[in-house]
Each structure stands twice: as C-alpha cells, then as structure tokens.
Amino acid sequence: MTAVPALIRVEDLYAPPTRSRAVLSPDGTRIAYLAPWHGRLNVFLRDVDSDWSAPDLEDGSGTLAARRITAEVRRNIDRFFWSVDGRHLLFQQDIDGDENWHLLRVDPARPERPAVDLTPYEGVRLLGAQLAPDRPGTAFVQLNKRRADLIDFFELDLMSGDLTPVAENSGDVISWLRVPGRVLAFTIEEGGEHVLSERTGGETRTIARFPQSDILLGVVPAVPTADGMGLWIGSARGSDLTRVARLDVETGEETEVDSHPVFDLDTPRPEADPRFASSLILHPATGDLLGVRYLGDRQDIHALEPHFAEILPLLAELSDGDLSHVSTDTTGQRWVVEFTHDRDPGVTWFYDHASGKARRLFRPFPHLDPEQLAPVTPVTLTARDGLPLPGHLTLPVSLEPRNLPTVLLVHGGPWYRDSWGYDPEVQLLANRGYAVLQVDFRGSTGYGKAHVEAGIGEFAGRMHDDLIDALDWAIDRGLTDPDRVAIYGSSYGGYAALVGAAFTPDRFAAAISYTGMSDLVDLVEGVVPFARRAVENSYLRHIGDPEIPEQRADMLARSPISRVEDITAPVLLIHGANDVRVHRRNSDRVAEALRDRGREVEYLLNEAEGHWFSNPESNIELYRRLEGFLAKHLGGRSSEAS
Fold first, then answer.
1. Beta strand spans in 6-137 (E)
2. Which of 197, 491, 614, 639 is catalytic?
3. Catalytic one of 102, 611, 638, 639
4. CA nearest 336: which of 362, 310, 299, 355?
5. pTM of model > 0.90
6. How far apart are CA 417 and CA 315, in angstroms?
7. Residue 332 DSSP label
8. Is 595 helix (H, G, I), strand (E, B) or coil?
9. CA dihedral 356, 362, 364, 367 (to 10 degrees)
10. How many whole angstroms separate alpha carbon 474 and alpha carbon 471?
11. Cα(328)–Cα(283) distance, integer angstroms
12. CA dist list (Å): 428 to 53, 108, 318, 605
C-alpha cells in the first residue's frame, strides 16, 4: 500500500471556496461569481477576458480586474442570478438561518452602491422569484406578506421596488406561476390530488389534475415554455419514472417531450438545494428548452435543441466529471460551465463556440489535491425483502479495505437522494480512516415512484431495516468492523441516527444527530403556516396525521424520544437555534433525557444558524467536534490529536 495521506485540516475542507458558482451575463461580456470577503461569500464581477490568475481581494489600487458588488458580512450568499436584461444582479438572503428569504438587488455598473432590499418585510418569506423574458424589468414574486399562512402573488419592479398585487390567495393556493397573459395557481384537494388552474378576475378555470400517487412535494419542475402557451413539467403520469412533458395551459393536454428508459429526471433535488443544477437546461433569453438531465450512477444529459446538441459534446470534453451549472449568452456562443466531480469539484471553464477555444477559469479548492481525496463508488445492494438499494461507498485512501471503522451516513429529506460527487464531510471521514457508506433507502427520490412509495408508513420500520441491511452488506464483505460503526446524518438522517441508537442499540458504537427530529408529532405539527397544506402527500401520507389519535400514537411509537431509555451508545447532538424545519426542542429533549439517565451525550447548539450551518466558523466548529467524537468512540484519526 502507498503512504496514508496526511490529515486534511478541517479548515481546508470547510473554508469558503476561493471562487464558485460562476454565471455569464446575458451579453456574454461579464461573469458574476462568489468569492470570500470578510469570511463570507459575496458576489464578485469580472470581464470574461480578464486575467483569472489575478487575485479577487481588493488592495485599494483600483487596478484589479475583479469588482466586489455585495458586502454581506453576516451570512454567506448562496443564491444569485442576473436579471433578464443583465441590468441587475439579484440575490437572496435570510437572517441567521431563519429561511425568511429576502430578494436584494445590486447594480453591476455601480458596485460602490449598497444592495437594495426589494422585499424589506420582517417575518415575511420570499417563496419564489420568477423572471419573465417578456417583462425584463420585473420579477413575479410569491410572499406571505398579508398573512403568515397564505402566499400571495406580486409583480416587483426591480428598479423602484414597487410591489403590485397580481393575485390574492383565497386560502387554497400553495404556489403561483405566471405565463404571458395568464396567472396560474397550484392547489391541493382533499385526498392529495394537485390541481393546476387559471385565476382571472376572481374566476377559476381548472387546467389539469395530478393524482396523489404522482405528486410528492409538488409539480416540479414547472417552467413556462418559450411561446407562453405551456409548461415544461416533470411528470410520472402512467409511468414509474419521471420524464419531461409539455402541459398545454389552454387545454390541459400533457405531451411527453423526453424520457430515459432507466433513470428519473433529476428532480426534486435541484429544486430544494441550490448546489445542484436544474433538471432543465434553458436558454436564458428565450426560455427555449435546450436539454434535460437524468441521474443514475452518473448523470445523463439529453440535448433537445440542435445548437445545444452540437455544443454539449464539446463541453463534456472539458472534464471527466458531470456537467453541472451551465450559463450562456443570448446568442448561445459563449458558455460558462461548472463540473461535478468526486475529488475535484466545481472546476469552471469558459468556452467560446465561435472560436472553438476553451480555458479553465478556476478550481474552487486549489489547495486540495485530488490524489489525496477518496474516490466515491456507486454500489447496489439488496434489502431483505428484495428491494434494490442504490448507494455509495467511499473508502480511505491507501488503507487495506478490511475491518474498517465505518460511518453509516444517512441523507436528509427523506425525499432526497445521494449522488456521485464531492461532499466535504465524506472526504473528512475517509481522510480520518473511516469507510463511509451511504444508501438510498426506500422512500428516497430519484429511483421511481415505487421506490418512494415503499417508504409509506415505514419510518423506524423498513426504512431503518434498509440501513441495517446495507451495514450487514459491508460487514459480510469484510469491509466493516461491526464493533466500530457510527450512524450519522442531518435532518431525516439525524432522525435515522437516533432511531439507530434507540431501536437497534446493539449495532452502533456511536450516533450523531445533526438537526434531527426526535418527535414525529412535533415535526408535523411544527410545519410553518404557509406550508401546512402542501405536506399532505409527504408528511401526512408517509408519516401520519397527528390529528387522528391512532396515527398520533403510531407516530410517537416511531419517535426516538419515546425510546430514549434504550439508548446506550454515546450521542452527539448538533442543532441550529433558529431551525424552522426541525425545532431545537427535538435535540433539547433528547439531551436532557440522556443526561437525566446518566448517559454519555454531547450537545453543540449554534445560536447563529438554522437547519443547515452556513458560516465557515460554524462548520469548522461542527466538524472539529464531530471528528473528535468519532475518534474517541471509533478510533479514527483526529487533527486535535495530531
């Protein structure tokens, strides 16, 4: 075996990227991107032809090619975009993880001017900003400004900030969409059927209905077609797999546009997480559908427009990773593209189709050596009832893959999935000497409706059995030392970790719950007001309805808080005090109960974070604590001991 790689510092994995998320301006002359300033990711701007080897940080000389155009010092920016005409850059921001997103505007031509908050309403959440090619100076926004539990629809003037009501929620609308000349609304009827309708002058016209079995979280994606007469949607109508369809907004007729024989359209993951590119690749000016993404072990992109079909293979040649975020100018000649990779993430290129020339702009993490990072390998195993379970296995570099301490890393959601790519916590764990096992248990998305629906009613049941079956798979192959296994995850994964510690205490030497729910009744009853109607097909169908006594009792029985006395392994709890998805009391109560019983428990509560930690110092503290906890109980390496 070759030499074991040196310890990678937590700071090197969780410091902000030097640059990331580059987006080309509509005219193809400038690139906006994120870079750190005072420890926070801010938006910077460069000319396409500038010297990208030059630093971004301002030195007062006024000669640097990069111009910083935002000045956020409290929290990272992670969502920003150009206005249709390129006149403005827009970004979203919340306060300490409260998820009450605001929409802010900056002027690329006047970077010295401060950002303007276009939705300066305390306690109000921006739930979507739709930019329409036919109205370049405005955005159509959804806000719960009038009532916390109702989402209304507005047209926002990007220059003046004037907010014009477009449609008022009568009490049943869960989301709005605008196509030229029409206002569309999505609602949910009793029984979970989703309905798309047109709202005009107080009148409602039903366009299409979507059965409960086809819709989990909503109709996603749902994007207006270039002609304004339809929507590009993700559809599983009459199929186990989700494909792309065109929905006629006049007739409601649904026509298949493209599909994959094996893979689902890559959704709803990108709609929930801005790190991932949308499943639809659209022309920024016209809205034409250029291509669509499907995801299995690796990504498969189908080009649907002749010019993009010519461009796509040329872009793919730039990296052995998967094509991620893509932006182009209005002519489709200039492109900025980012790549997903398991060991060299986010490498970003500029390609000029007119000249045929390409150049690499940056690597977000130039200090990380891909050769020192661990390959991520897709695997498939079989559950005890025969259900195929896709997953990923990451083994430490240069260690014999025998009897390794192992972390069973469980994704959140649970309506989410793991995928091939770079994850700093996976690399941290592998670098510390742990095998990392991830499994897309039943209930995970991305593998068809049947895989999702196999999770109905199976919280702390067969969903947990799948994790145990995956662990046994690794043990049977000699990869994992059964006496040195930790279970860890965030959100649903944190719940799964507590279930593992409470329901199968003999299988785990340690458990780590990061913003995990310990009480399923509290989770469902704590849904923020405007989202309560939207959880019928997810929370209520899959977990239970706490208003029904028998289901409430079952939910409590499947809640780790009801089985705390069975937890014997050491537990690390991590929570953001401002979490609005899983209230901190879910961790508070477990910590108190374990301490009362004299059990070993550590609790990291961060007062400046929400459901996911954002700021670098928060993540550095979190993962230092995590590596020390695992080293103590599983025997892996730790930078604290070096």
1. 20-24, 30-37, 40-47, 67-68, 80-82, 89-93, 102-106, 116-117, 126-130
2. 491
3. 611
4. 362
5. yes
6. 26
7. S
8. helix
9. 130
10. 5
11. 7
12. 28, 37, 27, 21
Q: What is the mean pLDDT of the chain?
A: 95
SS3 203: strand
Closest alpha carbon to 431 in 370, 490, 493: 370
- Residue pLDDT, tens place only, 405-436: 999 999 999 999 999 999 999 999 999 999 99
For 450-580, strand residue ranges (E) read 480-490, 510-514, 571-576
Question: Beta 357-362 vs 150-157: how paired, if at all?
Answer: unpaired
Token pair 């002058």 is found at 201
Q: Are 102 and 91 in contact (CB under 8 A)?
A: no
Q: Are 590 and 565 in contact (CB under 8 A)?
A: no
Spatial separation of the C-alpha atoms in residues 404 and 636, rounded to whole Å: 9
What distance lies between CA 424 and its chain's CA centroid? 15
Write out pLDDT tens, residues 178-233: 999 999 999 999 889 999 999 988 899 999 999 999 999 999 999 999 999 999 99
DSSP letter assigned to residue 135:
-
Residue written as token pair 């182009």? 328
SS3 content of the chain, % helix, strand, coil (to 5): 20, 35, 45
465 belongs to the catalytic site: no
Known catalytic membership, residue 367: no
Q: CA 388 from chain center: how many Å?
A: 24
Kindly state which CATH superfamily the domain 371-519+559-633 is placed in. Answer: Alpha/Beta hydrolase fold, catalytic domain (3.40.50.1820)
Q: Roughly how many angstroms between the first and final C-alpha of the chain, as a whole number?
A: 22
Q: What single letter denotes the amino acid at residue 142?
A: Q
Q: For the chain, what are the domain ranges?
A: 371-519+559-633
Query: Which residue among the candidates 579, 587, 618, 639 is catalytic per the annotation?
Result: 579
Bridge partners of 258? 244
172 is catalytic: no
Looking at residue 489, its amino acid is G
